[in-house]
Write a structure and sequence with these properties.
Blueprint lengths: L1 H6 L6 H6 L5 H10 L49 E5 L2 E3 L4 E7 L3 E13 L6 E7 L4 E4 L1 E3 L8 E10 L8 E9 L4 E10 L5 E3 L3 E6 L2 E5 L6 E3 L5 E8 L9 E8 L12 E7 L3 E4 L3 E2 L5 E5 L13 E10 L9 E10 L2 E7 L2 E4 L6
Parallel strand pairs: 2-12, 14-24
Antiparallel strand pairs: 1-3, 3-9, 4-8, 4-10, 5-6, 5-9, 7-8, 10-11, 10-12, 13-15, 15-21, 16-20, 16-22, 17-18, 17-21, 19-20, 22-23, 22-24
C-alpha cells in the first residue's frame, strides 16, 4: 500500500490511483485508458504505457490543457481576532475537488503555512492538496511530509507564503483545494503559520468527511457461469448521489480480461448490451487494449448531467459469450467502474466461468 499511495502524489499517477480500488489491475487499467485523458495537477496531460496512443490502446486523443478562466476568490476564514484561520468544505466527495482556504491576519515575510492532517478510514498518502498560485495562474501541489507506516493516518502539507500587509483589517486569503483519492472517512486539518520572524500561530482544527455516491450492483452472483453461444446474463448498476455536490462528468465503464493456455479473449468473443430508457437495448462496443490482452467499453450516459445530489443513474447491462470464443479460456475476469471524469470512485469485479458450446466452424 505504501508504494501505491506514494504514487498518488505524482500528477502522472492520478489515473493509476483510481485503478487501485479494483483487484483486476489489467482490466481496470484498460477501462481508465478508455476514459477521458487524465489531467495532471499542474494542468498538463499525463499519460504513459498502455494509456498512450503509441501503445495502440483505447485511449481518447489528448486534449490541450486549459488554464483556469477565473481566479478563485475565496471568502476569508475565521474572525478578526485570529492570526490564522482555516476552513474547508463540509464534505470531500471522491472524484471532485473540494475548496478550502487559509486566511492570515498577521504580517508574514518568507514564512511557511503548515497543514497537519489526521485521517480515519483512508490513508493520508491518498490525499492531494493544492494551492492557487495567483502569480502563475495555476494550481500547484503542496510540499508533503511522509506519513509513515504502510497506511499512514497522519501527514503534513506545507507551502511558502509572504503577506507583509496582512492584519485584522486586511486579511490575506490563500485559495486551496483538496481531494481524497482513496475511500470514505474523516479528515481533520490543523493549520499553522511561521511568520518568518520567529513566531508560530495556530488555527482551530477543522474536520470534514470524505464521501462518495452510493453504488449498488445486482444480478451477478458468485460462481456465475456463461456458456459459449448461450444466453446472456443481466447485471444492473445503480448510482445514487448521496453527497452534497453534483457530479458533472459521471461515467461508467465495463472491463474484461480472459486468457487460456494459447488464446485470450478479444472483443468479438463477448457481447455487451445496454438498455436506456427511450432507446431500448443496443450493443456497446468493446475496445481491445494495446498492451494487455483485455478490453473495455464506455457505457452510454443514462442520466442528466450533472448528477445532482439525491439523483440516481441506472446502468442495465447484459453479457454473453460468443460461440466462437476460444475453448482454452475457461474464465473471464470482468467488472465495472464508476467515476467522474478520469477519477474512479467505485469498482467491482464481476467474474464468470466459461463452459460448453460447440466451436464455430
Amino acid at each position: 500500500m505504501t508504494r501505491e499511495v506514494a504514487q498518488q502524489r505524482s500528477s502522472r499517477a492520478r489515473k493509476s490511483a483510481a485503478r487501485t480500488v479494483a483487484a483486476l489491475a489489467a482490466g481496470l487499467a484498460l477501462t481508465m485508458g478508455a476514459a477521458a485523458p487524465g489531467q495532471a495537477a499542474d494542468g498538463t496531460q499525463g499519460r504513459s504505457g498502455c494509456d498512450s496512443p503509441a501503445a495502440g490502446g483505447a485511449s481518447a486523443p489528448a486534449a490541450p490543457a486549459k488554464e483556469p478562466t477565473a481566479v478563485p476568490a475565496p471568502a476569508a476564514a475565521g474572525n478578526s481576532t485570529q492570526k490564522i484561520a482555516y476552513r474547508v468544505d463540509s464534505q470531500l466527495p471522491i472524484g471532485l475537488w473540494s475548496s478550502s482556504a487559509v486566511t492570515l491576519r498577521t504580517p508574514v515575510s518568507g514564512g511557511k503555512v503548515r497543514l497537519d492532517v489526521t485521517s480515519r478510514g483512508f490513508s493520508t498518502d491518498s490525499l492531494t492538496v493544492q494551492r492557487y498560485d495567483a502569480a502563475n495562474r495555476r494550481w500547484a501541489d503542496l510540499d508533503t511530509g511522509p506519513g509513515g507506516g504502510s497506511r499512514p493516518t497522519r501527514g503534513t502539507f506545507t507551502f511558502p507564503v509572504t503577506a507583509k500587509g496582512a492584519d485584522a483589517g486586511h486579511p490575506h486569503t490563500i485559495a486551496l483545494r483538496l481531494q481524497d483519492l482513496d475511500r470514505p472517512g474523516t479528515l481533520t486539518v490543523a493549520a499553522s503559520v511561521e511568520d518568518g520572524r520567529g513566531h508560530t500561530y495556530r488555527a482551530p482544527a477543522r474536520t470534514t468527511t470524505a464521501t462518495r455516491p452510493e453504488v449498488g450492483v445486482v444480478g451477478w452472483k458468485q460462481g456465475t457461469t456463461l456458456e459459449r453461444g448461450g444466453p446472456s446474463r443481466a447485471v444492473t448498476v445503480t448510482v445514487k448521489n448521496t453527497t452534497n455536490r453534483a457530479y458533472p462528468a459521471l461515467n461508467a465503464f465495463y472491463f474484461a480480461y480472459g486468457a487460456g493456455s494459447d488464446h485470450a479473449l478479444t472483443p468479438k468473443d463477448l457481447t455487451l448490451r445496454q438498455y436506456r430508457q427511450g432507446h431500448g437495448w443496443a450493443d456497446v462496443p468493446l475496445l481491445a487494449g494495446g498492451c494487455d490482452p483485455g478490453m473495455s467499453a464506455t457505457l452510454r450516459p443514462v442520466a442528466k448531467a450533472p448528477l445532482a445530489p439525491g439523483a440516481t443513474a441506472v446502468y442495465r447491462l447484459t453479457v454473453a459469450v460468443a460461440r466462437s470464443a476460444p475453448r482454452d479460456v475457461a474464465r473471464a475476469d470482468t467488472g465495472v467502474t464508476v467515476g467522474n471524469g478520469d477519477m474512479s470512485f467505485f469498482s467491482q469485479n464481476l467474474p464468470f466461468a466459461i463452459r460448453g458450446g460447440k466451436q464455430a466452424t
